[in-house]
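Extended Data, record DNA mismatch repair protein MutL
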Amino acid sequence: MSIEILPARLANQIAAGEVVERPASVVKELVENSIDAGANRITIDIERGGHKLIRIRDNGRGIVKDELTLALSRHATSKLKSLDDLECISSLGFRGEALASISSVSRLTLSSKPAEQETAWQAFAEGRDMAVQVQPTAHPNGTTIEVKDLFFNTPARRKFLRTEKTEFSHIDELVKRIALSRFDVAITLTHNKKVVRQYRARTPEQGTDRVAQVAGKAFATDAAYIESGAEGLKLYGWVLPCGDNGNSQYTYVNGRMMRDKLILHAIRQAFEEQMGQIELPGFVIYLKLDPRQVDVNVHPAKHEVRFHQARLVHDFIVQAVKQAVFMPEQSSLNTDTQPDYVEDAQQQNYRSELTSASEPLVSVPSGFDFTPKPSQFSSSAGQSNRANSTSYSGGRATVNQNMTEQTQHQYNANEFYQALTPEAQTSASSEASSLEDNIANTVGAEVDMMPLSEGMLFVKKQNHILLSHYKYALLPLWLADIEQDAALTGKALLLPVRVNLDSVNKQALEKNQSWLTLLGFDIQFFEKYIMVKKLPINVYSIDVAELINRTLECCNKEFSDIHHWLEWLYEQTPSSYFVSDSFANLQIKIQNNTQCLSAIQAKAVKLDSNMFKIILEQGAQ
């Protein structure tokens, strides 16, 4: 069998199999052409579900007489000129196959008049003949395309069309999606000469009105608006955390409606991580990025795209959507966060006894649970993962399982606190003082450390067993880093996070910007919001908005000493920081630093062997 080039009409019909699936496909291609032509008013007339007639009218730029025949030719388009244009597509249509493919399986009439042309002209093509007839006609500025008797010459294809009602429902849903893609375009849809949809042109500020008209007033009222990112990669839109039975799920990339698997997966993951399993959430999401970073030429009907940095885009969408799905009470930066535990009267009295000492023997973090359950230490991994799941940095800490299991079976911190009577505190204070005097003679000796929860640790040195806290090691380490490098090392977020602030809070942060820079923050200030680019490493897993809320509370105290700021930074450090892989590096760094080792031992409580045995026995139970 010899190789031959396909005739033009056969090639067009093959292409029509990819482009023209059903009447809704024709509407999509023609309306997108109207939008690319600059139209701000489009009328769509449908008869018998699109089987008999599809008519699209617009007030766009139109097509000059000499290009009417060429417009119905295959691979003819005004939207691409070179390979560079193909790599940076900003229009909706670009292949130049739609009109030729549609005209090969229907009776197509194209009437158009550019504003600079005195008269309008009409081109007609019918099925296999493909011979384009051009004649003058009466027509206002713009273009009208009539598609009659779709698939009249391909009965096998026509047999696969559904009922008129079904086909029109596809067209109706398509028009909804198009209406949400361009608020500034007025669209009217009629079926059998009855107006079914009528969307008036809206400004971007009136976008909620268009969303309410398409997705329903309930969606527009209950949905949360989200805006994140900056130029080059930006996401905005509405999400409905309570679910919408999947009736309102619309995504757009650079104005192009999408059903992309990567985008849908990222949105669903954000909902599941924030709210657990949820049935079909509702959303209207717009993603804008550099056209060079996305390839829209991967699907015949352009329903899917390929991102050059797919993982980056996926994580950005997850983090951005989380902001809107976050619990309502945490959305305001002025809302005071409540602790997730409640102390009884005995615990409160005991805490006051510890904090009333002139020099604290044991540093007790503000959120420490005085009644740890047997599974407290084994759940550290889960707590760490939950804390990191709401992070906008995308990072996750890996828990040292061996260390956690060993700690679980050996130590019960609550028993130790109960064993610290006032007499024991006084004795330990004097011993700690004498230990500080002899520090220089024992620094070189071997030191063993065993971590507890909430930053507590046992220090075993020669014949002494001490209980201390990482606070007394971290602060000298941070101070040394600041003196050496002028600032702590900050860790960059995967993508900058936007946090909306009022003028008062923004001024408070700006006033303390130099202190925050020393701690490792990198914040850019704008008129009504800030962009957080870096965070200190030890608070990297905390939600950015929540951390800024805590920072604002600290700014109101007006700390003027770096020691106060370092104390504050330590208080923000989550307990997972001390049971993750960072613990190993921190332990080595402490043991290699004489100043930090001295500080941690000077603030330690010395235990005798009997008390240590009691703790081990009670912990084993």
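Summary. The domain at 204-325 is CATH 3.30.230.10 (Ribosomal Protein S5; domain 2).
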